[in-house]
Each structure stands twice: as C-alpha cells, then as structure tokens.
Design brief:
This protein is mainly beta. It has no helices and eleven strands. About 0% of the residues lie in helices and about 55% in strands. A hairpin with a 4-residue loop joins strand 7 (about 70-75) and strand 8 (about 80-85). The model has no long low-confidence stretch (mean pLDDT about 95).
Length: about 120
C-alpha cells in the first residue's frame, strides 16, 4: 500500500530551525513530483515548495524563500524540508504530497508550532 509518513514536527522558538522528513513506500518514488504543503486552522492549504526530479527543479512560496530548503533522496525514498529562521506565521500542519498525473498521495501531516 502507498504510505507517506512525516516526522520532525514539533514546537520551536521564533528564529529556530526544524527539519521535516517524509518517508515514502508503495510507489516508484523517483517518478513523482514531491511537495510540502501546509494548512493553518481556518485557512486554505497552501503549497510551500516542490521538487521535480526529472529536471532537478525546485520552487518555493514567496513566504518561505531564503528560509526553507526542499530536497529529496531517491535512494532512501525520502523527502526533506529544512526550515530555518522560523516565524510564528509558519505554524501549521505540514503535509507531504506525491504527484504524477492521475496519482496524488498525501501523508497524515505533522504539526509545526513556532512560539516563544
């Protein structure tokens, strides 16, 4: 079965750092565009960043540019999100997503809370 399992969320102070991981199984990881989304209470889910393996291309939301770095290790079927200089407005549930045309898979999410 397809599984995406996030880890690394938690409570961090403003200005701190956190590294999220997403371990995938049940599909050919290297064929998929991998993304991180986030959703705060009462708000729409937004795309944070994605990495497209075939052309080694990444894209970031304006709100996280220069602070977050998305990466993937195809040999380990793992997606990462390095988050630096965290702000309270980064507080949200972060979701791992795998996309390839008609296939769209989601993890259960991991809570990130940025607070002093």
């Amino acid at each position: 079965q397809v599984q995406l399992v996030e880890s690394g969320g938690g409570l961090v102070q403003p200005g701190g750092s956190l590294r999220l991981s997403c371990t995938a199984s049940g599909f050919t990881f290297s064929n998929y565009r991998m993304s991180w989304f986030r959703q705060a209470p009462g708000k729409e889910r937004e795309l944070v960043a994605f990495v497209f393996n075939p052309v080694d291309f990444t894209r970031y939301a304006d709100s996280v540019k220069g602070r977050f770095t998305i990466s993937r290790d195809n040999a380990k079927n793992t997606l990462y999100l390095q988050m630096n200089s965290l702000k309270p407005e980064d507080t949200a549930v972060y979701y791992c997503n795998a996309f390839m045309g008609g296939s769209d898979y989601w993890g259960q999410g991991t809570q990130v809370t940025v607070s002093s």
